[in-house]
Each structure stands twice: as C-alpha cells, then as structure tokens.
Amino acid sequence: MGMYGTLRRVTVADAERLRTDPRLLEAFLFGEPPIVIDERPPGLLGFLLRLTPIKVQRTEAAPPSDNPLWPPPTPGDELELDKAWHGLHFLLTGTADGGTAPASFLLNGGETLGDDDEMDVRLLGPEQVRALADHLAALGIDELTRRFDPERMTKLGIYPDVIWRRPEETDAPRGFLLDAFSGLREYVARVANDGDAIVVCVA
C-alpha cells in the first residue's frame, strides 16, 4: 500500500482535545471506526466452526452518523501529499531524515501525538506553522529545481526510491515534487494566516 503524508489543520482548542483523548485522534485521522460483523458460513463448515474458537469476521464502513466522534474535514482543511512527503523533505533539508526546523517539519519537530509505532503523527502549533509558512514563502521553484538530485535521492533511499532515476521519465518525478511543493506552500500560508495549528501524519 505504501506510505502517505497528510496535513490537516486544527484550531488550538481542538488540538488540546486531540492531546487528551486517543479515541478522538483515531477518528480525526481515519474517520469513524469500521463495524466488525461475525459471519456464520452455511452448511457443514458453519457447524464445524461453531465447535471451535475460530471466528469468521468481516468489516463494513460505519454508516454516516449524526454525532461522530470527529466530523470529517471540510474543503481546504486537509492536504494530501500522497507519496511526495519524503521527496519534499529531501528538497527542503537535503537529508533523508534530518535537517533543522522549520524545514524538517515533515519528519521532525512539533509535538508527538499518539503512540502507534506504524505511523508518525505530530502537532505543529500556530507559531511553528507561521515559521514554516515564512520559510516556504522564501523558497522559489528555481531553488527547489536545483536541489532535485535523482542520484543522491536514490542513494539515500528517498521514498519511493524506484521512481527518481527512471530514464524514460526524466521530468515527471521532479514535476511531481514541485507541484506538491506549490500546494504545500499555499496550504501552510492559509493555515498560518488563520492562526491555526497543523497535524502532520505519515502512515
């Protein structure tokens, strides 16, 4: 399935709620949890399964709720970076997992939320968002183009490392990252202007 980067704005008050209730964080990130349904296969198989502790289950998406744990994002609240998150981190920092704030915000900095080892979720407060917006505004597309280095990115294992040096697609990977950067810069500027925080999730 791969790893995807997502940014989502929150107010300062909602950020405090996410800090204190893990259930809210999961609903905030992924929506209402699915419904688990026990299956009862017909015939002999179903009879034999009733004699064992084995359960056959399936999941279904939860139906729309009038009172969800967390409402879905409204237009403009969320930015999907798809698989561009690691390439953007490289363009901003020149590293695979290092760098200094605010350039390294996709992988470092901010406040860690949750304790799931399979995903990285961090909160950037309004001051950090403003610093990031200023940093991104100061970067031009020409500078980012100069920083694009397929050979070094492949050597460092920048995810997804199979795409950077495809000879038949010289411009596509670079364009993929530059488009993602433009969207990122605009998004962060809007959130900073509104004085909100941002939750960064790589999962």
Written account of the structure:
It is a single chain. By secondary structure, the chain is an alpha+beta fold. The chain has 2 domains: 5-31 and 69-202, Hypothetical protein yfbM fold; 33-67, no CATH class. Helix content is 41%, strand content 17%. It contains 8 helices and 7 strands; from the N terminus they run βααβαββαββααααβ. The strands form 2 sheets. Strands 4-1-7-6-5 form a 5-stranded antiparallel β-sheet. Strand 5 (111-112) and strand 6 form a beta hairpin. It is globular and about 65 Å long. The mean pLDDT is 89.
Defining key terms:
203 residues, alpha+beta, Hypothetical protein yfbM fold, five-stranded antiparallel sheet, two-stranded antiparallel sheet
Sequence-ordered SSE layout with sheet pairings:
Blueprint: E1 5-10, H1 12-20, H2 22-30, E2 35-39, H3 43-49, E3 56-60, E4 78-82, H4 85-93, E5 111-112, E6 120-124, H5 126-137, H6 141-147, H7 150-156, H8 172-194, E7 197-202
Antiparallel strand pairs: 1-4, 1-7, 2-3, 5-6, 6-7
Percentage of residues assigned to helices: 40-55%
**What share of the residues does DSSP label as strand, in percent?**
15-25%
Tell me the Rg in angstroms: 21 Å
Q: Kindly report how far apart the N and C termini lie.
A: 10 Å
- Could you give me the name of the CATH homologous superfamily of the largest domain? YfbM-like super family
> Which CATH class of the largest domain applies here?
Alpha Beta
CATH domain fold name of the largest domain: Hypothetical protein yfbM fold
* Number of H/I helices: 8
Q: Please trace the helix and strand order, writing H or E for each element.
A: EHHEHEEHEEHHHHE
Please indicate the count of domains: 2
Number of strands: 7
Mean pLDDT: 89
Q: Which class of secondary structure composition applies to the elements?
A: alpha+beta
